[in-house]
Amino acid sequence: MGFGARVAMVFALLGGAAALSAATLSAADAVAARKANFKEIGGAFKAINDELKAGAPDVAKLRPPARTIVQRSHRIKDHFPAGSGPDSGLKTKARPEIWSNQVEFGKYRQAMVISAGAFDKAVRSGDLAAITKARDALGTSCQGCHNQFREK
Ligand code: HEC
């Protein structure tokens, strides 16, 4: 097999594997994955808030959790496949509106992606006032989605 053909085959395999993993995420796996992802996001956000509450916050310590939230905010879109809502019988706080109103859910998801990016950018700027403001906006994005789409 020529080099070109081998490269094409590797790409086909990688692409196929990626498509397969997205398509075959069972409802149970999806619920587990999204809870674990949100748990990490929650932990990172708590670390950020704890640091900002400190008398003299160390901005360098905000960088890893800020990156965690950015990266994990992008995964949320793959964690709510059809059939992984409360009808599945699985233990989940995801409300059925996530699936019946996907456009709205998508807006909240996107708002978080944007807020997370803005927060990360503020952290890199080192400007504490900007960081605090961006943190507040990020927190509002969490709260907004939870109010609409998560059971109490
Ligand atoms: C687009 C909607 C949305 C956004 C934005 C969002 N969440 Fe959530 N979150 C949910 C839903 C829905 C659940 C319930 C998941 C389930 O039980 O299956 C959840 C669950 C959680 C959980 C509980 C995880 C567990 O252990 O079961 C935590 C913690 C959490 N979110 C934190 C956050 C934080 C912090 C942010 C913002 C930085 C955030 N979320 C942004 C929708 C969202």
| Amount of beta strand | under 5%
**Helical percent range?**
over 70%
SS summary, helix count = 6
Number of strands: 0
Q: Secondary-structure element sequence?
A: HHHHHH
Low-confidence stretches: 13-21
Structural shape: elongated
Oligomer: single chain
Organism: Caenibius tardaugens NBRC 16725
GO cellular component, one term: periplasmic space
Pfam families: Cytochrom_C_2
Keywords: Electron transport, Heme, Iron, Metal-binding, Signal, Transport
How would you explain this protein's 3D organization?
Residues 13-21 have low confidence and may be disordered. The termini are far apart. α5 runs antiparallel to α6. The protein is elongated, with a radius of gyration of 19 Å. It has a single domain, classed as Cytochrome c/b562 (Four Helix Bundle (Hemerythrin (Met), subunit A), Up-down Bundle), CATH 1.20.120.10. With 152 residues, the chain is an all-alpha fold. It has helices at residues 3-24, 27-53, 63-73, 97-100, 102-125, 128-149. Heme C binds next to α2, α5 and α6.
Features:
152 residues, mainly alpha, Four Helix Bundle (Hemerythrin (Met), subunit A), 6 helices, binds heme C
Topology:
Elements: H1 3-24, H2 27-53, H3 63-73, H4 97-100, H5 102-125, H6 128-149
This protein binds heme C.
Quick gist of this model?
This protein has 152 residues and is mainly α.
